[in-house]
Structure formats: C-alpha cells, structure tokens
Design goal:
By secondary structure, this protein is mostly beta strands. About 5% of the residues lie in helices and about 55% in strands.
Length: about 700
C-alpha cells in the first residue's frame, strides 16, 4: 500500500522553502529561515528537526482550517472529529489527546497559548490570522519548558517587518453549509507605529448529525517603536467558538450510516438528544517589551493572561468551566564574536504561569442543565528557568547546550459533594530538561545534525480531572530521552531542498486515554513506549518561476513519515499489551502536492495524503482502514489597478470520495471508535487584496 501511495503521485510541498506567487515582482527563490531560538536563522543549519508553514502555503489551502497545512510537515498529524474539534500530534502525542493538544508547547509570538494547566485551545485560531508557523519536533525544553512532543511557534498577522500597507477581504462558501468571511489588515500609520488586525466569521452545518459549528474571532497585534532600539507590542485574541459533537460510532453503525450521531442505547441517551457540544469563549492578551540594550545585548519581557468561559453538554452530564491564566516570560539574548572565525550566543530566562479552573458538572436534560453531580476547584502553577549557550565556528560548525529546570504543582478542592474546607496539594519533583545538539556544514549546501534531549510532560488539568469527574492524583509525568540524527541539502540556486531525520525516543510513564462504559474518559500511566521514526521531505522547482511561457512555475516534491512506535512493559490488570503498536499512530504517511503557475494569474494546487491503517485500541484488535485523500484548488488572480487585486478560487476535498474516519476515539468503550469524515465536497470564493 505504501509503495502504491508513493507512486500514486510524486508531488509534494512539505516545506515551503521557496516562496513565490503570481503577484510577486521577482522570481528570486529565497532561502527559508526559521525563528526557532530567538533569532532568525537559515533552516539549513538549524540543529533541530523542524518544519515551516509559510503564509504562501496557507494561501494555497482552503482557508477555513489549518489542518492540511500542519499535515504537510513530516511527523505532524492534525485530526478533525467534526468541524471545530481538532487534535494536533507531534510524533505520536495523539495517544493522550481526546481533543485539543497534549505534550506540545504552543506560543503566539512571545505569549504561550498553552496554559498553566497544560491545555491548548488551538481551535480558537482562524487560519487567516496566522502569518507563519514553525514546528520544532521532538522534546525541546531548552527555552520552552515542559513538553515531550515538540514546540509550535505561531507568528500572527502583524508581526511581519515587510514595508507597506496590506489589507484583504475574503468570502468563502461550500458544501455542508460552509460559509466564511475573513478581513485582515496590516497598516503603518507612522514610522514608529504599525498594527495588524484580523476578523473572521465561520459557520458550517457539518457532514454528520449534530456537527454544526460557528466561530467569531478577532485578533490584533499593535507595535510601537518608541525609540529605534525599543519596541512595545500588544497581542490580543478573542474567539467565540461553538460546535456540536456527534460522538463515536461502532463499526456496524459507521458502515450502515456514517452520518449518524452517536445513537441512544436503552441505558444512555444519544448525542443528538442531549445536544452534545462545546461553547468556548476565550480572551488571550499580552504585552511584550523588546529592548536592544546594546549592539550585543537584547532583553525581552512579556506579561500575559487568558480567560475562558467553557461549557460542554455531554451524553452523561453538563459541564461548565471557568478558567483563568496569568504569567510572565523574560529572557536576555547576548551575542558576540566574529562570524568569520568564532561567534557565540548566550540566553537565560524564566517563564512562570498560574492558572485556576472551577469545574462544575450537572445532569444534562436534553441540553439543559439539571441537578449538581460534582463541583471542584483546581489551581495549577508551573515555572521553569532556562539557559542556553551556542557557538558557531567559521560559519560551519554550530554547537548548542541548553538546560531548563521545570517545576509543576496543582491544588484541588472538592466543593460538591465533598464540601472540603481547604485545598489539597500535589507537587511534582522538579525536572531537568537538558538538550545538546550539533550541526555541521559538510559542504556549503549539505548539513548534518545530531541532538540528545530529555522530554518531560506532566498531566494536564483536563487529564487530572477528566469527564468522569474523578480527580486522579496518581497520574505521573511522562519522561524520556530522545536521540536524533539528520541532514539537509539544497542546491546552490535553491531550486531543490531535502530534509531527513532518524530518531529514537524512549518514554516512561506514558499517559494513555481510556473510556468508561458511559463514554466518560479517564487517563492512566502505561509504562514504557519505544518510539522509532524516520522523516523525509523533498521539494523541487521543476520549472523555476518566470514571466514567460505557458507554464510560469512548477513545484513538486514529497514527504514521508515512518513510525515504529511500540508499547514497552505495559499491563492493565490481566491484559498484557507489551510490544503492541502505539494506539492512534499510523505506521506511515505520505503527503504529496504540486503547485503550478500559468499565464493570466491562473494557478493550480493538488495535494494527496496517504495514511496507513491506525490501531484504535491498546490490544490492537481494531484498526481504522488506510485511506487516500485528494484535495485540489484552482485560483485566478488579476490586478484591478496598481494597488488592488481580485481573486476567484474554487476547490474540492476528498475528491476520491474515500470513506474514512478522521479523528478516531481511541480505546472507546463499546466499540464506538469511528468519527466519519465528510464525503467529496467543494468550496469556492472571492478575495480582494490591497
């Protein structure tokens, strides 16, 4: 199957190494850079395994979801159980992600989107408010604190330093009731002040019963250079997200009628009857101060906070959460030396977060709140200190050593029915997360790299107090060591780029999702997990961008992810799962695409995703079938005048009309594993750009 998938279409765009579009005024192929460790640097020489999703890559997608763009990075898997309900995995972390993000640290500029309790509401973001995404794969606590999957660094609209004003209005509609409107501006009223603003509204009826969604999102970045060497910026995001959750189906139900919501049983009502869904109103805000104290020394400090009003009518209960989070992050960046001979850089800083969560569960009477079931208050606090030293010898050898000390604790109090008078403490031992890495430029176009790092990821508040309403104080933090080697190669004219890596991550005390008979989830430590993997991506401009001829540019390539993830010593009661495949992780994926540019501003884009079968339970007795997903988009872009451009686009998803489940419920009780993805569907829209 995998050979068929690779030969099905040898086309890819896994790393947007070379950016070009119809409205560019130059055909120069720029080298991709990444701001991974506080400074912009060429991806070729980066010591970490990484992927970059550029603005041009996002514009080639449908625009109503980040999912296809994330899935173009090897080792990354994003799933959608229903519109608005996403999961993001870096190298297997879907194992503990019922929805949302676990094991991964996410930042919006200098502000963590991952809160003190370990939760990340990535589905609050609208794709048009994102300018660029950098993904650092594998545990990296050197500058970012607790994680064992990796780090996602999101640059919002308004952070680009390109000159000139820009604005765009985009309207998009499609199958299953899809409608989306997006407005984005980047303006510079004066030489010292600039800002970006994005507003978006999106709705969809969904493919399945009880799967509609609505989201209104507002985002701004305000930047004030009050002196040439000092900048103060405000970052704010408000999102009102509402979506229904249809629930998992058994295999028989999935094949008989995949559009069904989870039906009722004699003992438990169904998802449609209970109006199961999520309402998430979140405000994220922060102030960042960046000061270039001298030519060698820079200081950055940020303070931030979030507030979330969350409600979740579920099959068995009606949950309401009130969450807040405050924190600060500060560091220094000192650089010295001569790049021609020897240069070095030193970083030191800290990050501190405190969060509170009030959780109340009630009976659910058809989407209406009933009597109290359980009410708890939880407080979480985490902070870490970090130092990093890097050295560069003759712009050829890069050496890095970094270390962070991570501290995590939470407190809990039962309000009902326990009526406890004080909080109980759960303190985790402070954990060191070292990272050592090298990158060597063998030739001016070929670089090798290796790294050793330790992963550490304590349980999140959503795992400590999951939907079964039981606080689990026995959960331990995941830990492990990651060993990695890799290489990157690019041609002198940057028309071709290849990136490969091999890694081995041995995890102890892996946190596993389980479900009770009612469908309520809980989590447990599973013992050892051995994760061996290989990732390869390649991209080639088969026809270099030009302004003559019938074909003005053609980019092809492919990326491949191979995952041999196995449970180590893992036993639950009398069941022995030792040696089984890791739940929820496909053994292989191949993501391929082609971008073609034609005269008159016409462009075409095709993406193919092959995903191998996926084990759905720890016993490996049930698998989701492999699938081929084909997407395409055609755009026509023309100038109305010197400053205003008009675009028309149409596209389609699942063009092969595959029957597949995207976002399976792993270890589901009663065999309710499957969340059917939409059949063949289409979209189209218009855009005005200034």
């Amino acid at each position: 199957m995998m050979i068929r998938a690779i030969t099905f279409v040898f086309i890819a765009f896994s790393l947007p190494v070379f950016a070009w579009s119809a409205q560019d005024t130059t055909t120069h192929l720029e080298e991709v850079t990444v701001r991974a460790y506080f400074v912009e640097q060429p991806l070729l020489r980066l010591t970490a395994s990484a992927g970059v999703v550029s603005r041009s890559t996002l514009e080639q997608q449908s625009g109503h979801t980040l999912l296809p763009a994330f899935n173009m990075v090897p080792g990354v898997r994003m799933e959608e159980r229903s519109p608005g309900s996403y999961r993001l995995s870096l190298r297997g972390s879907l194992l503990r992600s019922p929805f949302g993000v676990r094991n991964v640290k996410v930042y919006l500029d200098e502000i963590p989107l991952t809160d003190a309790g370990g939760n990340t509401y990535l589905n609050l973001l609208d794709a048009d408010g994102v300018d660029r995404i950098a993904v650092l794969k594998g545990p990296d606590g050197s500058l970012f604190g607790a994680n064992s999957g990796g780090v996602v660094l999101i640059r919002p609209v308004g952070m680009s330093n390109e000159a000139g004003d820009r604005a765009s209005l985009r309207i998009n509609g499609g199958s299953f009731g899809l409608f989306q409107e997006q407005l984005t501006t980047e303006l510079r009223p004066s030489s010292t002040y600039r800002f970006g603003f994005s507003q978006a509204y999106q709705r969809a009826d969904g493919y399945r019963q009880n799967s509609s969604m609505k989201r209104a999102a507002f985002q701004t970045v305000q930047r004030w250079n009050y002196t040439p060497a000092n900048e103060l910026r405000l970052i704010a995001l408000y999102s009102d997200l509402r979506y229904r959750t249809p629930g998992g189906l058994t295999e028989a139900q999935y094949h008989e009628d995949p559009r069904l919501a989870r039906p009722a049983t004699p003992a438990i009502p169904g998802a449609l009857e209970q109006q199961a869904g999520i309402v998430n109103k979140t405000l994220v805000g922060g102030i960042v101060h960046e000061a270039q104290i001298s030519a060698k020394l820079r200081h950055v400090a940020s303070i931030f906070g979030t507030h979330t009003d969350f409600s979740n009518p579920f099959i068995t209960n009606y949950e309401i959460r009130d969450e807040y989070n405050i924190g600060l992050r500060t560091y220094i960046d000192y650089a010295d030396g001569d790049p021609e001979t020897f240069s070095w850089r030193f970083n030191a800083g800290l990050e501190w977060q405190h969060g509170g969560t009030d959780i109340a569960n009630y009976d659910n009477h058809g989407g209406m709140r009933g009597d109290e079931q359980a009410i708890d208050a939880l407080k979480s606090q985490q902070h870490f200190y970090f130092v990093r030293l890097s050295a560069d010898v003759r712009s050829r050898l890069t050496m890095e050593a970094a270390l962070s000390l991570n501290d995590y604790r939470y407190r809990y109090q039962s309000i009902f029915p326990g009526n406890e008078s004080s909080f109980n403490d759960r303190q985790f031992d402070a954990a060191w997360m070292p990272r050592v890495a090298l990158s060597y430029l063998i030739t001016p176009r070929l670089a090798s790299r290796l790294s050793v790092s330790r992963g550490y990821s304590p349980p999140t508040i959503a795992e400590i107090r999951p939907s079964d309403n039981i606080i689990n104080t026995a959960l331990r933090a995941e830990t492990g060591w990651n060993y990695e080697v890799g290489f990157r190669w690019q041609t002198s004219n940057r028309r071709a780029f290849v990136d490969g890596s091999l890694f081995y991550y041995r995890m102890d005390d892996a946190i596993i999702r389980q479900l009770r008979e009612t469908g309520a989830e809980f989590f447990d430590n599973a013992g050892e997990v051995d994760q061996r993997g290989a990732e390869l991506s390649a991209v080639l401009w088969a026809v270099e961008p030009r302004y003559q001829g019938g074909l003005r540019g053609l980019q092809v390539g492919t990326n491949l992810t191979l995952s041999r993830f196995r449970f180590g010593d893992y036993r639950v009661g009398d069941d022995n799962f030792t040696g089984n495949k890791l739940t929820g992780v496909p053994a292989s994926t191949v993501v391929s695409s082609i971008l073609a540019q034609f005269p008159l501003g016409i462009s075409g884009y095709i993406m193919h995703n092959y995903t191998a079968s996926i084990p759905l339970n720890d016993a490996n007795t049930v698998f989701a079938d492999a699938y081929h997903l084909l997407q395409a988009k055609v755009s026509w872009d023309t100038a109305l005048n010197r400053k205003l451009r008009f675009q028309v686009f149409v596209g389609g998803d699942n063009l092969l009309n595959q029957k597949y489940s995207l976002g399976n419920d792993i270890n589901a009780f009663g065999g309710r594993f499957f969340n059917a993805a939409p059949t063949r569907n289409f979209y189209g829209g218009i855009a005005l750009r200034y």
